[in-house]
Amino acid sequence: YRGEFSPIQTNVSGIEVCELMPKQAQIADKFTILRGFQGGHLHTGNEFFSGYPWQESPRASIPGESRRPALGSVVSHQRRANSAIPAYVSIRGMHDWERPYYLGHEHEPFRIAENSSNHGRESLANMTRPKDVSRDRLSSRRDLLRSLDESRRALDFHASARAIDAFQGRALEIVASSKVRDAFDIEQESPQTRSRFGEGMESLGQEPWKWLLQARRLVEAGVSVVTACTYGWDTHRTNFQTLRKLLPSLDQAVHALITDLDDRGLLDDTVVMMGGEFGRTPRIGDITPDGRGHWPQAGFLWMAGGGIRTGQVVGQTDDRGERVIGRPISAQNVHTSLYKLLGIDPSMTFPDHNGRPQYLVERRDPVAGLL
Length: 371
What we know:
The protein is an alpha/beta fold. Helices cover 34% and strands 14% of the residues. The chain has one domain (7-359): 3-Layer(aba) Sandwich (Alkaline Phosphatase, subunit A), CATH 3.40.720. Strands 3, 7, 10, 11 and 12 form a five-stranded mixed β-sheet that branches. Strands 5-4-6 form a three-stranded parallel β-sheet. The chain has a two-stranded antiparallel sheet with strand order 1-2. Helix 9 (208-221) packs parallel to helix 10. The two termini are 34 Å apart. The relative contact order is 0.18.
C-alpha cells in the first residue's frame, strides 16, 4: 500500500498533499478536496460532465437514446449567448460526454482545434475575416444568407434547421469580432505570465499551462463554461515514474490559474473543478508491480472558487483509502451543488427525444458542507 511519494503539510492545518504538488500546498485555503467520490469504472467522462453514468447505445445521437446533456450545454441553454462570445467552450475536447443530446445541437461546445507547435493559432486563423472580404462585403453576405434562410424556414423549420441558424450566426459574429479572437489568443499574454503557468515544463507531451491560461482568458472574456482534458493518467504501468513527469506541470498550472483568477477578482465568481472518472487502487501493483488500476469505490475531486467553503476536506475514507466511511459523494451530489452555484434549478426538466421530461438531476442533495 505504501507508495514512493511522501505527504507534505499545506497552509491549512491537518491537510496534506503529495510532495510533487508543493504549489497546491501554498493555496490549500483556496480549495476543497471532496474525498470519497464514487463514480463508474469505465473510461468515460459522462458522470463527470453530466452527473449520469454512461449508457449503452449503438448510436449516441439517435432519438430515444438515454444519454444526458453535459453541464456546459445546460448552461448554454439557460444562458443563451447574446454576443459572439460562446457560452460553452471545450479545449481539446472531442468527446460524446460533452454533448447536449436532446437540448439541441446549437448547445454543442465551441471546440478548439490545436497544434502544439503553434499554440492553436490555426484555430485563430479560421476565426479571422479573409483579407479580400471587406466588412461591407461580409455584411452583404450575411444579408443574402439571412434571406435564403428565411425562404428555407418557410418550407421546413425543425431542430436541425434551428441549429444551423445558430451556428451560422455565431460563425459570422466570430469572424466579424476581434474580441473573440483575442480571447482565444494566448500569444497576447506576456512571457512572464506564460512562465507563471508553466510554459516549457516537461509533461509527457501534455501542456496544462496552455490550456488553463486559455481557460482564464475565456472566462475573463465572458465564457460561462470552459472544459479542458489532459491525458496520460491511466497508470496501470509505471505509476510513480509517470506521475513524476505529469504532476509538477499540473501543480504549476493549477496554482497559476487559481492565483491569477484571485488577483483579477474573478475567483469568487468562478467555480474550478478538477478530477477524473475514478480513483486508483490503494494497493500498489497492476500490469506492472508499480502500477495502479481503476478504483471507483473511493476517488476524489478538487474544487475551488465560486463561493464554496474552502480550506477543508469533505468526506472520509478508511486508513488505506479503500472504502468510504459514512455517506459517499456521488456525481449527482456534485452536479446539484454546481447547478445551485450557477443559479440553475437542478429540479428543472427538459423533454428528451421521445418527449418525456427528464430531470437535470434526479437525486438533488448537494455535497454536505460544500456550499
